[in-house]
Design a protein that fits this description.
disordered N terminus, alpha/beta, 50% helix, 13% strand, Trna Endonuclease, Chain: A, domain 1, 2 domains, 6 helices
Length: 197
């Protein structure tokens, strides 16, 4: 799954420092607002730290990230209780993905243009949490729904009494059309936010 946000734009990754800065950028996008790059490199295997999460970044490795590498980072950070997020520009071995799934570690593969691809289901859930935060839905209370229903019913009754049954049906269709337009607008915004068309 490609996770791309229009607000992030292109970020050229040419060095380990670029890769770490890009990882911090994405972590902030996913809701870890205080994500910053460790000034001294990867302390305890983590290049990016945030409240509740830590990110390990590999850059231009000669082979895919294996289970032993994940286990080393996980063991070094077992005491923190933070979610581990691992970033690589290569790939993850099958055993590494299995280990990550079993231990709640999010795996992402980044491109040279800064884009991110989730490499396991944990990463998918991390990436999707930003979509939910970007479009908070404020649900009206049950009282709000009741009042809205009463107003709508009153309008239908008024039109029905004045214009007959056809007027009430006309009003119902008109309100339904506006509702569909509003729904389409919100759906389109969500698709644009997720990187769709």
């Amino acid at each position: 799954m490609m996770t791309k946000g229009p607000k992030l734009g292109v970020y050229h990754v040419r060095s380990w420092q670029d890769a770490a800065a890009n990882a911090a950028r994405w972590m902030r996008y996913w809701g870890y607002a205080d994500a910053v790059v460790e000034p001294g490199g990867q302390a305890e295997g983590l290049a990016v730290r945030a409240r509740g999460a830590g990110g390990h970044v590999s850059f231009k490795e000669s082979s895919s990230v294996d289970r032993a590498a994940l286990q080393h980072v996980a063991d070094a950070n077992a005491h923190s209780g933070a979610r581990l997020v691992i970033f690589t520009d290569t790939a993850f071995s099958r055993h590494a993905v299995t280990y990550a799934d079993e231990h709640g570690i999010a795996l992402f593969r980044y491109g040279s243009d800064g884009t991110m691809a989730a490499a396991n289901s944990i990463a998918d859930s991390v990436a999707q949490s930003s979509v939910a935060e970007a479009f908070p839905t404020q649900q009206p209370s049950w009282l709000g729904w009741v009042l809205l229903g009463m107003v709508f019913a009153g309008c239908l009754l008024s039109f029905g009494l004045h214009f007959g049954l056809h007027g009430a049906v006309y009003l119902f269709v008109l309100v339904g059309a506006f509702g569909l337009l509003w729904f389409w607008k919100r759906l389109r915004q969500l698709l644009i936010k997720c990187g769709g068309s």
